[in-house]
Each structure stands twice: as structure tokens, then as C-alpha cells.
Amino acid sequence: MNQIMKKFEYISNFLINNDNFILTAHETPDGDAIGSESAMYSALKSIGKNVIVINADLMADKYTFLDYNKNFRVLKNNSNLPLDINKYTLIILDTSDIDNIGIIKEKILKKTKNHLIIDHHESVNEISENILIMSEASSTCEILYQLFEYSNIKIDFNIAQALFVGIVYDTGSFIYPKTTAKTFSIAH
Q: Distance between CA atoms of 154 and 24, rounded to whole angstroms?
């Protein structure tokens, strides 16, 4: 089994064996960040998980349609946080730089029981088992598609739409160098 499949297996089992998740992405979240959060939110809810999305900054208005159930929050103070935050796992999407998640680092990361990172940007932190970085992928949404497929999570309309937004954003509408045949196949 190659390294990526081992990571998919670990993360898939991790998602199944935990119940409470907080999702976040980098500051000033872009299309891939919001798409990733929306897709992961819907995927986790579809398997019966308790999920909250909290970011350091507001999303741009053009992405609000991906907040299907009006669940995205911006952390302003501790009133947005669950009282039992120590029972939650933080999933950081579209960045491996924990300094790039703003106030989330101090107010959430240090209080949750553990965290996962899923990203496509190059990083020196690719070794840890709780980090999935595929720097050859066009976007974090491309990685999530593969993870959901591996985990047998049904990709419904909401998940597909969110993944498509992230892929289109991070490929510059399929023109950037990391766009591959796999990217087109996933987007199709």
C-alpha cells in the first residue's frame, strides 16, 4: 500500500471513529477553502457526525451559496464555541500553516482533543500521520474527492458543487499547471 493510501486509510478510520468536528481553513478563505469546508461538512453530516464550521474571517459573498444550512461561523469570541470543545477534533483545510488560521489557533486548536490537516500546498510537515498533504493535487477539493471516494462517502449534489467550486478556483478555471487529467475527471 503506498503512502497516500495509508494516509487515506488512517484519515478515513479517524473520521469514522470520532463524532465531533470543527472545520476551519486559512484566513480570508478563498474558493478552495470554502469549497473544502462545505464538502467536508456535508460528507461528515452524511455519516452522522456533529460538525461545526468556524473561520477567522468572513467568506466573500460570492461563496455564501455553499453554506447550505447557514452553519458557517466567524469566531469573534468564545460564545461561538461548544462548551465541550475538548471532545472535538479540529480539521484544518487548505493550509498546513497553523499560523495562517488566525484566532482559531489560540481559541480552538489548543483546546480541541486533536487535529487533522488536509492540504495541497507544499510543506515541510508532511510526515505526521495527522497531516495529509498532496502537493501534486490541484486543490484541497481534489484531495477530498479522492478521500471521500476511498471512504465510500456518497458524493451528493451539495458535496459535488462545493468540490467543483474549489477545483475551479484553485485551477484558475483549469489553466494552472497543477491541472491534470485527474483534475478534469474529478470535475466531470
A: 22
